# Entry
Amino acid sequence: MTNVSTGRKLGIAARVAGKQIKGSRTYSAVLSGVRATVGHFTAVLRQLWHEITGLVFLAFAGFGALALVKEYLAYHAGKVAPNRVAIAAGFTLVFGWFGVSSFWRARKPRKQRKRS
# Structure
């Protein structure tokens, strides 16, 4: 009889035990539960990410709106050129759009992947 090392014996035993565990219904149920839980938490974290970034973008748009009012009043008084008002308006519109679209993305349902 050939001598088989202890490490090799342990490897064979682990492989046999792994096949037994993978074939059990309990393993399948636990794996299915873990997949569902991870999928749910991923969806929640994705929604939270979009809502936080949307809030930040809307805050920037709010600051842009304040700057727009300030620049418009200065333009109306004849102190600044109209390009500064246009820049402030563009900034406000772009960041407002980013904020709104981020909230839309947070509400949009994700497509489910097919499991085979």
Summary: The CA atoms of residues 4 and 10 lie 10 Å apart. The chain has three helices and no strands. The helical segments are 6-22, 25-76, 82-107. The chain has a mean pLDDT of 89.
